[in-house]
Write a structure and sequence with these properties.
5 helices
Length: 142
Amino acid sequence: MKTYTAKPGEIQRDWYVVDAEGKTLGRLATQIADTLRGKRKPQYTPHVDTGDFVVVINAEKIHLTGQKLDQKLVYRHSGFPGGLKTRTMREQLDRRPTEVIRKAVKGMLPRNKLAAAQLTKLKVYAGPEHPHAAQAPKDLEL
Protein backbone atom coordinates (compact mmCIF):
# COMPACT_ATOMS: atom_id res chain seq x y z
CA MET A 1 0.00 0.00 0.00
CA LYS A 2 1.43 3.36 -1.03
CA THR A 3 1.19 6.54 0.96
CA TYR A 4 -0.76 9.31 -0.74
CA THR A 5 1.06 12.60 -1.18
CA ALA A 6 -0.74 15.68 -2.49
CA LYS A 7 0.80 17.35 -5.54
CA PRO A 8 0.59 21.14 -5.88
CA GLY A 9 -1.33 20.92 -9.17
CA GLU A 10 -4.01 18.54 -7.83
CA ILE A 11 -5.21 20.72 -4.96
CA GLN A 12 -8.64 22.31 -5.16
CA ARG A 13 -8.83 25.49 -3.13
CA ASP A 14 -12.16 26.57 -1.69
CA TRP A 15 -13.12 29.98 -0.33
CA TYR A 16 -14.59 30.37 3.15
CA VAL A 17 -15.98 33.41 4.93
CA VAL A 18 -15.89 33.83 8.72
CA ASP A 19 -17.85 36.42 10.67
CA ALA A 20 -15.64 37.35 13.64
CA GLU A 21 -18.35 39.29 15.49
CA GLY A 22 -18.46 38.11 19.11
CA LYS A 23 -15.94 35.29 18.55
CA THR A 24 -12.99 34.77 20.92
CA LEU A 25 -9.71 35.71 19.24
CA GLY A 26 -7.59 32.66 20.04
CA ARG A 27 -10.28 30.08 19.36
CA LEU A 28 -11.09 31.71 16.04
CA ALA A 29 -7.41 31.96 15.07
CA THR A 30 -6.79 28.23 15.59
CA GLN A 31 -9.71 27.30 13.34
CA ILE A 32 -8.53 29.72 10.65
CA ALA A 33 -4.94 28.45 10.87
CA ASP A 34 -6.10 24.84 10.45
CA THR A 35 -8.12 25.80 7.37
CA LEU A 36 -5.20 27.74 5.85
CA ARG A 37 -2.90 24.73 6.35
CA GLY A 38 -5.44 22.30 4.88
CA LYS A 39 -5.82 20.17 8.01
CA ARG A 40 -9.59 19.97 7.48
CA LYS A 41 -9.10 18.01 4.23
CA PRO A 42 -8.37 14.32 3.82
CA GLN A 43 -5.62 15.22 1.31
CA TYR A 44 -3.57 17.06 3.97
CA THR A 45 0.17 16.76 3.42
CA PRO A 46 2.49 18.60 5.84
CA HIS A 47 5.06 19.72 3.27
CA VAL A 48 2.55 20.84 0.58
CA ASP A 49 0.23 23.84 0.82
CA THR A 50 -3.18 22.12 0.64
CA GLY A 51 -5.13 24.88 2.41
CA ASP A 52 -8.08 27.02 1.43
CA PHE A 53 -8.70 30.74 1.27
CA VAL A 54 -10.30 32.37 4.32
CA VAL A 55 -12.05 35.76 4.33
CA VAL A 56 -12.63 37.24 7.80
CA ILE A 57 -15.20 40.02 8.17
CA ASN A 58 -16.11 42.19 11.18
CA ALA A 59 -12.58 41.99 12.57
CA GLU A 60 -13.22 45.10 14.67
CA LYS A 61 -15.91 43.25 16.68
CA ILE A 62 -13.66 40.44 17.93
CA HIS A 63 -13.97 39.41 21.60
CA LEU A 64 -11.10 39.03 24.05
CA THR A 65 -11.55 37.34 27.43
CA GLY A 66 -10.55 38.71 30.81
CA GLN A 67 -8.56 41.93 31.03
CA LYS A 68 -6.67 41.37 27.77
CA LEU A 69 -7.97 44.57 26.15
CA ASP A 70 -6.10 46.69 28.68
CA GLN A 71 -3.29 44.40 29.88
CA LYS A 72 -2.09 42.67 26.69
CA LEU A 73 0.55 44.68 24.87
CA VAL A 74 1.33 44.63 21.16
CA TYR A 75 4.97 45.25 20.27
CA ARG A 76 6.58 46.39 17.04
CA HIS A 77 10.12 47.49 16.28
CA SER A 78 11.32 49.87 13.59
CA GLY A 79 14.73 48.21 13.34
CA PHE A 80 16.57 51.21 14.72
CA PRO A 81 17.97 51.56 18.25
CA GLY A 82 15.23 52.71 20.60
CA GLY A 83 12.58 51.86 18.01
CA LEU A 84 10.43 49.56 20.14
CA LYS A 85 6.80 50.75 20.23
CA THR A 86 4.05 49.32 22.41
CA ARG A 87 0.28 49.61 22.34
CA THR A 88 -2.46 48.00 24.37
CA MET A 89 -4.77 45.61 22.57
CA ARG A 90 -7.62 48.15 22.88
CA GLU A 91 -5.55 50.78 21.03
CA GLN A 92 -4.53 48.25 18.39
CA LEU A 93 -8.15 47.21 17.81
CA ASP A 94 -9.12 50.87 17.38
CA ARG A 95 -6.28 51.60 14.94
CA ARG A 96 -5.72 48.36 12.97
CA PRO A 97 -8.24 45.63 13.82
CA THR A 98 -7.23 43.54 10.81
CA GLU A 99 -3.67 43.26 12.09
CA VAL A 100 -4.82 41.73 15.39
CA ILE A 101 -6.36 38.70 13.67
CA ARG A 102 -3.57 38.38 11.10
CA LYS A 103 -0.91 38.33 13.80
CA ALA A 104 -2.82 35.81 15.93
CA VAL A 105 -3.17 33.45 12.95
CA LYS A 106 0.46 33.94 11.95
CA GLY A 107 1.57 32.85 15.40
CA MET A 108 -0.33 29.58 14.98
CA LEU A 109 1.26 28.67 11.66
CA PRO A 110 4.61 26.85 11.43
CA ARG A 111 7.79 28.94 11.19
CA ASN A 112 8.86 28.10 7.65
CA LYS A 113 8.52 29.28 4.05
CA LEU A 114 5.29 27.34 3.61
CA ALA A 115 3.60 29.45 6.30
CA ALA A 116 4.31 32.63 4.34
CA ALA A 117 2.43 31.20 1.37
CA GLN A 118 -0.40 30.04 3.60
CA LEU A 119 -0.74 33.45 5.24
CA THR A 120 -1.26 35.12 1.84
CA LYS A 121 -4.53 33.17 1.55
CA LEU A 122 -5.93 35.01 4.59
CA LYS A 123 -8.02 38.10 3.79
CA VAL A 124 -9.14 40.18 6.80
CA TYR A 125 -11.59 43.10 6.69
CA ALA A 126 -12.67 45.36 9.56
CA GLY A 127 -16.27 45.78 8.41
CA PRO A 128 -18.98 43.47 7.06
CA GLU A 129 -18.13 44.09 3.38
CA HIS A 130 -15.53 42.22 1.33
CA PRO A 131 -14.61 42.25 -2.39
CA HIS A 132 -14.52 38.44 -2.79
CA ALA A 133 -18.17 37.80 -3.64
CA ALA A 134 -17.18 36.55 -7.11
CA GLN A 135 -15.41 33.54 -5.54
CA ALA A 136 -18.71 32.50 -3.86
CA PRO A 137 -17.24 31.84 -0.40
CA LYS A 138 -19.03 29.38 1.87
CA ASP A 139 -19.54 29.89 5.61
CA LEU A 140 -16.83 28.18 7.67
CA GLU A 141 -18.37 26.09 10.43
CA LEU A 142 -16.48 26.69 13.66
